[in-house]
């Protein structure tokens, strides 16, 4: 159980660091609250959707900025708007801020500035993606571990540093997959 | 004397008569019986000869040592060379072995590409194809290079027509040209109609240089110029066999080193400075390579032929020029080295194996020529190679008609200008347009898929996007699929064409967006269950644990997802769906185009205990309100097609006037009243609370929202608290 504690602590530390570094903000915390036994992977789902969306938009902007015939700043503006909306919805603060900065250059139709901003945006996005993926891995790893421990140590008084909701959800998952949880009373 | 000890010394005198003479002087003191020194005995010996011999011995020993060192060095070199040869042989064999099954894999993949695949599969397949193609290309290049280096390559000597070759190469290049470039070819009049040479290799060299030129040129032109030049000095020097090359020299193994490739003697003004640096080196190597120079006679037939027919050698120079990005001066020396590309960035951006130029150089030099380059950054580059060709004088004009135009007509590719010289060709971009559209989507797909492997620049994608947008706007879903997938800029196409198409495509897009998922499967509403799990699993491709988790959780999700899809499909308002929600629950409409915002908001609402309907733009919002009565509308302000402000205005106009005229004027037709319509015309329409969701943009000021009829606004991002307050305030 100490191991699980350790992992859990790691998870908490890591996620606090994300907040401290400004990579995510309170909105992200809100999202975390939306996870329950009905949508156990909600944050991951939203995040992956966001990654997809972000990559698409960044790609579009890169293509638009490379057009020799003339850059369609209106299109870029739309992309930025979308990205700003998405990033602020999931709490990706730095990405959102990069978008805000980007906006001023695209409003000024400044191609060089836009290119720089796009690079910055890409950078922030990569950072976010890395961090979030790590976060998810840690959380998943600890959940996995916990499943094993739950199965083997069911009934052990000294268990459960994890919230009950998670236990409940894990048990449901295992049962749904055809497994069974031995009950020891 | 002082010490009382004998001593000997060598003293050298210079004598006039005998030159330098060395004497060994031995001096010893003589003691009396009492021990006093009485005198000295001294002896002198002429040891000149001995000294000389001694010195010679030393020298000889030194020489021996040096010799021994040289020997070991040589042995080592031989050893290394042997090993290298063995390794190359093994590499060639292995490459060959690898190539066959790899071709098999690529062929299978190509066949697979013609079967029905979903988008994810197609994308994966494209990666497979392009990777496979690249590896094959690499292997072929390696094999070529090792063949040339190991001396296994035999040169052919066949008759061919230079003009045809040039035209053919340009045409092939034009056929797969993805950019707007002009390709031109110019063969001077004094180039003979037919020459003798290794046409395959020459074509290979030309193709390589031209494809390089195209790769690195984004606008302007790429061209080939062919003309006769007098015999260059490098051929004269050190060539004992003369230009006839009558002795059948086999290809030699001492192919010149990569560092020296230049024909310094070319005085053409566009040659750049690095030739000067290489001058010394190339002098040495030239003599090495000269024996290999006049190697045109790989085949026995030719020597026989040669014996019969009179032949002369003509030197033809070929310039492959472009108006591309150019080559920086510091990159020129290493340009022809194996695996070298101008910079790591270049390699990443433009792809390629880095072997092409090395192979070209080897081939050219094997054939007795020289390959050089001159370039200016941002202006363009010119690659020049000079080769000797034999011309068989006797059979020159027997087959050809005297009329040059006939020759070009026979070839019939429809593009060459009918100039006086039949050696002028040009390929304009508009030719490409007809190639693309006339040959249909399958050709496009093949070309595009093929080219993705070779050239990896944004330009390609951008260009193909321009071309692909034609089929897209016709609304042909199938074609769009093919083209999209082949381009693998699928999303780009969708995004770029969406603003125009979303109105006409709204039936499809409605159901998609209502599903609130990223993946666009054009047809399948039923596919959404799979869609949702694909989403998570593609994200989590790296962590297997999550995969397992997802699979475990999927069965339990359908029940909940189905619930979502029901609420989603309710917003597919072209078909009136049954309302499964109970009447007591408040009906909330969310109008938002950003999928992620939709997801987050919907999830929050669910936690607060409400299911909501979702639409993606103002038009859909108006339609939704037309069909059902809502207790609350959350309206995003900035949306495509119709924004929130206008939608609100229209809804308010209905509330004020009782009719939807304003909406009709804006182009929204009133759907025929269905059983779902809960609003009979006689009762005055209820005032629906409409809350604006603003992103704090300048265009979304609070006053403007109120002026357009909104009741309130929340600023994004949407949080629990904000939603809760909203609901408390506006829901009964």
From TrEMBL, chain A:
<protein>
    <recommendedName>
        <fullName>Histidine-containing phosphotransfer protein</fullName>
    </recommendedName>
</protein>
<keyword id="KW-0539">Nucleus</keyword>
<keyword id="KW-0597">Phosphoprotein</keyword>
<feature type="modified residue" description="Phosphohistidine">
    <location>
        <position position="81"/>
    </location>
</feature>
<dbReference type="GO" id="GO:0043424">
    <property type="term" value="F:protein histidine kinase binding"/>
</dbReference>
<comment type="function">
    <text>Functions as a two-component phosphorelay mediators between cytokinin sensor histidine kinases and response regulators (B-type ARRs). Plays an important role in propagating cytokinin signal transduction.</text>
</comment>
<dbReference type="InterPro" id="IPR036641">
    <property type="entry name" value="HPT_dom_sf"/>
</dbReference>
<keyword id="KW-0932">Cytokinin signaling pathway</keyword>
<dbReference type="GO" id="GO:0005829">
    <property type="term" value="C:cytosol"/>
</dbReference>
<dbReference type="GO" id="GO:0009736">
    <property type="term" value="P:cytokinin-activated signaling pathway"/>
</dbReference>
<keyword id="KW-0007">Acetylation</keyword>
<dbReference type="GO" id="GO:0009927">
    <property type="term" value="F:histidine phosphotransfer kinase activity"/>
</dbReference>
<dbReference type="GO" id="GO:0000160">
    <property type="term" value="P:phosphorelay signal transduction system"/>
</dbReference>
<dbReference type="GO" id="GO:0005634">
    <property type="term" value="C:nucleus"/>
</dbReference>
<keyword id="KW-0963">Cytoplasm</keyword>
<feature type="domain" description="HPt">
    <location>
        <begin position="39"/>
        <end position="135"/>
    </location>
</feature>
<dbReference type="InterPro" id="IPR008207">
    <property type="entry name" value="Sig_transdc_His_kin_Hpt_dom"/>
</dbReference>
<dbReference type="Pfam" id="PF01627">
    <property type="entry name" value="Hpt"/>
</dbReference>
<dbReference type="InterPro" id="IPR045871">
    <property type="entry name" value="AHP1-5/YPD1"/>
</dbReference>
<keyword id="KW-0902">Two-component regulatory system</keyword>
UniProtKB/TrEMBL annotation, chain B:
<dbReference type="Pfam" id="PF00072">
    <property type="entry name" value="Response_reg"/>
</dbReference>
<feature type="compositionally biased region" description="Polar residues">
    <location>
        <begin position="240"/>
        <end position="255"/>
    </location>
</feature>
<keyword id="KW-0808">Transferase</keyword>
<dbReference type="InterPro" id="IPR036890">
    <property type="entry name" value="HATPase_C_sf"/>
</dbReference>
<dbReference type="GO" id="GO:0005886">
    <property type="term" value="C:plasma membrane"/>
</dbReference>
<dbReference type="GO" id="GO:0000155">
    <property type="term" value="F:phosphorelay sensor kinase activity"/>
</dbReference>
<dbReference type="GO" id="GO:0005737">
    <property type="term" value="C:cytoplasm"/>
</dbReference>
<dbReference type="InterPro" id="IPR036097">
    <property type="entry name" value="HisK_dim/P_sf"/>
</dbReference>
<dbReference type="GO" id="GO:0009927">
    <property type="term" value="F:histidine phosphotransfer kinase activity"/>
</dbReference>
<protein>
    <recommendedName>
        <fullName>histidine kinase</fullName>
        <ecNumber>2.7.13.3</ecNumber>
    </recommendedName>
</protein>
<feature type="region of interest" description="Disordered">
    <location>
        <begin position="398"/>
        <end position="423"/>
    </location>
</feature>
<dbReference type="InterPro" id="IPR004358">
    <property type="entry name" value="Sig_transdc_His_kin-like_C"/>
</dbReference>
<dbReference type="Pfam" id="PF00512">
    <property type="entry name" value="HisKA"/>
</dbReference>
<dbReference type="InterPro" id="IPR011006">
    <property type="entry name" value="CheY-like_superfamily"/>
</dbReference>
<keyword id="KW-0597">Phosphoprotein</keyword>
<dbReference type="Pfam" id="PF02518">
    <property type="entry name" value="HATPase_c"/>
</dbReference>
<feature type="domain" description="Histidine kinase">
    <location>
        <begin position="93"/>
        <end position="391"/>
    </location>
</feature>
<dbReference type="InterPro" id="IPR003594">
    <property type="entry name" value="HATPase_dom"/>
</dbReference>
<feature type="domain" description="Response regulatory">
    <location>
        <begin position="587"/>
        <end position="731"/>
    </location>
</feature>
<feature type="compositionally biased region" description="Polar residues">
    <location>
        <begin position="565"/>
        <end position="579"/>
    </location>
</feature>
<keyword id="KW-0418">Kinase</keyword>
<keyword id="KW-0963">Cytoplasm</keyword>
């Amino acid at each position: 159980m100490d191991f699980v504690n350790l992992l859990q602590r790691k998870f908490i530390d890591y996620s606090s660091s994300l907040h401290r570094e400004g990579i995510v903000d309170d909105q992200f915390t809100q999202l975390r609250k939306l996870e329950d036994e009905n949508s156990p992977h909600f944050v991951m789902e939203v995040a992956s959707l966001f990654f997809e969306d972000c990559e698409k938009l960044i790609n579009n902007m890169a293509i638009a900025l490379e057009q020799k015939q003339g850059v369609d700043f209106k299109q870029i503006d739309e992309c930025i708007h979308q990205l700003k909306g998405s990033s602020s919805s999931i709490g990706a603060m730095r990405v959102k801020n990069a978008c805000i900065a980007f906006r001023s250059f695209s409003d000024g139709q400044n191609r060089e500035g836009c290119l720089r901003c796009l690079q910055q945006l890409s950078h922030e996005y990569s950072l976010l993606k890395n961090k979030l993926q790590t976060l998810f891995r840690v959380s998943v790893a600890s959940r996995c571990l916990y499943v094993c421990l739950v199965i083997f140590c069911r009934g052990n008084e000294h268990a459960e540093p994890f919230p009950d909701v998670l236990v409940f959800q894990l048990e449901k998952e295992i049962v749904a997959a055809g497994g069974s949880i031995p009950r020891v009373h | 004397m002082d010490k009382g000890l004998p001593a000997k010394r060598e003293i050298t005198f210079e004598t006039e008569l005998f030159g330098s003479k060395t004497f060994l002087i031995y001096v010893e003191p003589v003691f009396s019986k009492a021990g006093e020194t009485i005198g000295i005995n001294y002896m002198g010996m002429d040891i000149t000869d001995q000294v000389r011999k001694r010195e010679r011995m030393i020298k000889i020993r030194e020489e021996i040592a040096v010799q021994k060192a040289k020997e070991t060095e040589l042995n080592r070199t031989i050893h290394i060379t042997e090993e290298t040869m063995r390794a190359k042989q093994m590499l060639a064999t292995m490459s060959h072995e690898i190539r066959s099954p790899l071709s098999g894999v690529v062929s299978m993949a190509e066949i697979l590409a013609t079967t029905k695949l979903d988008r994810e599969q197609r994308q994966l397949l494209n990666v497979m194809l392009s990777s496979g193609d690249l590896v094959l290309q690499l292997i072929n290049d390696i094999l070529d290079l090792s063949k040339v280096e190991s001396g296994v390559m035999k040169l052919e000597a066949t008759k061919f027509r230079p003009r045809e070759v040039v035209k053919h190469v340009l045409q092939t290049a034009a056929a797969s040209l993805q950019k707007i470039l002009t390709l031109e070819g110019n063969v001077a009049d004094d180039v003979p109609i037919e020459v003798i040479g290794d046409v395959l290799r020459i074509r290979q060299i030309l193709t390589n240089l031209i494809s390089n030129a195209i790769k690195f040129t984004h606008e302007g032109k790429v061209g080939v110029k062919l003309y006769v030049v007098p015999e260059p000095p490098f051929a004269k020097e050190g060539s004992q066999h003369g230009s006839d090359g009558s002795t059948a020299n086999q290809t030699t193994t001492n192919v010149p080193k990569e560092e020296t490739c230049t024909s310094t003697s070319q005085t053409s003004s566009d040659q750049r400075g690095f030739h000067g640096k290489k001058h010394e080196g190339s002098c040495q190597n030239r003599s090495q390579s000269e024996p290999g120079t006049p190697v045109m006679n790989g085949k026995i037939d030719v020597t026989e032929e040669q014996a019969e027919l009179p032949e002369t050698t003509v030197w033809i120079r070929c310039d492959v020029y472009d108006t591309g990005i150019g080559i920086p001066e510091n990159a020129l020396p290493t340009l022809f080295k194996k695996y070298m590309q101008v910079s790591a960035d270049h390699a990443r951006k433009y792809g390629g194996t880095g072997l092409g130029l090395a192979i070209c150089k080897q081939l050219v030099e094997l054939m007795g020529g020289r390959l050089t380059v001159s370039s200016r950054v941002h202006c363009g580059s010119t690659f020049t190679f000079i080769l000797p060709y034999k011309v068989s004088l006797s059979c020159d004009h027997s087959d050809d008609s005297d009329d040059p135009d006939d020759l070009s007509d026979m070839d019939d590719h429809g593009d060459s200008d009918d100039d006086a010289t039949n050696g002028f060709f040009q390929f304009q971009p508009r030719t490409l347009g007809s190639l693309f559209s006339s040959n249909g989507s399958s050709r496009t797909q093949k070309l595009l898929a093929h080219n993705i492997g070779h050239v990896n620049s944004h330009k390609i994608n951008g260009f193909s996007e321009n071309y692909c947008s034609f089929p897209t706007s016709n609304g042909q879903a199938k074609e769009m699929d093919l083209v999209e997938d082949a381009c693998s800029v699928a999303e780009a196409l969708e995004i770029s064409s969406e603003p125009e198409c979303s109105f006409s495509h709204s039936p499809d897009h409605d159901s998609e967006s209502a599903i609130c998922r990223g993946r666009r499967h054009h047809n399948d509403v039923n596919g959404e269950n799979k869609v949702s799990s694909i989403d998570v699993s593609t994200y989590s491709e790296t962590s297997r644990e999550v995969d397992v988790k997802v699979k475990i959780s999927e069965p339990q999700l359908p029940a909940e997802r189905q619930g979502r899809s029901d609420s989603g499909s309710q917003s597919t308002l072209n078909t009136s769906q049954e309302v499964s929600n109970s009447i007591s629950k408040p009906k909330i409409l969310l109008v938002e185009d950003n999928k992620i915002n939709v997801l987050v908001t919907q999830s929050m609402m669910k936690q607060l205990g409400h299911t909501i309907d979702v639409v993606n733009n103002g038009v859909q919002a108006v339609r939704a309100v037309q069909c059902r009565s809502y207790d609350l509308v959350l309206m995003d302000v900035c949306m495509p097609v119709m924004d929130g402000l206008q939608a609100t205005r229209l809804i308010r106009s209905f509330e004020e006037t009782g009719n939807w005229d304003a909406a009709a004027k804006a182009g929204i037709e009133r759907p025929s009243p269905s059983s779902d319509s809960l609003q009979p015309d006689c009762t005055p329409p209820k005032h629906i609370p409409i809350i604006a969701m603003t992103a704090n943009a300048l265009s979304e000021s609070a006053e403007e929202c109120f002026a357009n009829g909104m009741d309130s606004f929340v600023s994004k991002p949407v949080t629990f608290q904000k939603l809760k307050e909203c609901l408390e305030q506006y829901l009964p």
